[in-house]
Amino acid sequence: MKYTVFSGMLIGPRSRQEDCIIDGTAVFQADRLMSKRNIDTDRLLACVCDGLGGHAHGDTASRFVCEQINNRFLETASGLPSAQNILADIQQSAQRLLPENSGTTIAGLMADSHQVIVFNAGDSRVYKISPSGLDRLSHDHSLVQGLVDKSFIHQDTASAHPMKNIVDFGIGPLFSHVWNHLHIHIHEETLSDGACYLICSDGLNDMMTDQELHQLLAPDPIENSKKLFTAVREMRLKDNTSFVIIRIH
């Protein structure tokens, strides 16, 4: 299969880049990155990890998880591995090896010639981009999303909630107490030629609504990906901001 992948990273106002990404070829953690790659491969892994701000070693946690999932994906001889099993194994390793109270979100996808598997823990997101809009395939693990799920607040007002950035699940020692009752969100779908996906940290969602993102990216998300990067770079960012856009050919 052939893929085109555009990646963008900006450190924003933070002193450290606590986001880390996989762009289908390698792991990156840079203060500023803009990259476009054409990839010909049987299987692809792309993801974004957002080390939790306000906690120690968020940058270490996000890079650790990206490197671990990338290595385990490459070690799989054929087909797509179980995202649930891989991330559960990484959680066990993180509890042994990462500093106490460190943690990270993760959102990403694995693809082969037959299917696409989307996975996430925390509030980093995966969207499928279509001519009509953005279809969110991930599901936030956050205090505010929990209120939406229980119908205490409406989805339309969630982005303005003062506690929208409180994450209640992810990977790392910080989340060891909830791994026995919370689970990785998984979405599977058949691979389709021309399909396009956006993976991003919450730094992007904090700055732009889904509708604004779609207006910038449509009708050709790869062609307009540099436009998105430029728009984000010119904003007064609140956080590290990272995204990966994947088109399947």
In short:
The chain has 249 residues and is α+β, with helices and mostly antiparallel strands.
Q: Which terms summarize this structure?
A:
249 residues; alpha+beta; Phosphatase 2c, domain 1; 6-stranded antiparallel beta sheet; 7 helices; 26% helix
Notes on the protein architecture:
Strand 8 and strand 9 form a beta hairpin. 26% of the residues lie in helices and 31% in strands. Helix 1 packs across helix 2. The model has no long low-confidence stretch (mean pLDDT 95). The chain has 7 helices and 12 strands. It starts with a strand and ends with a strand. It is globular. The protein has a single domain, classed as Phosphatase 2c, domain 1 (4-Layer Sandwich). With 249 residues, it is α+β, with helices and mostly antiparallel strands. 44% of the residues are buried.
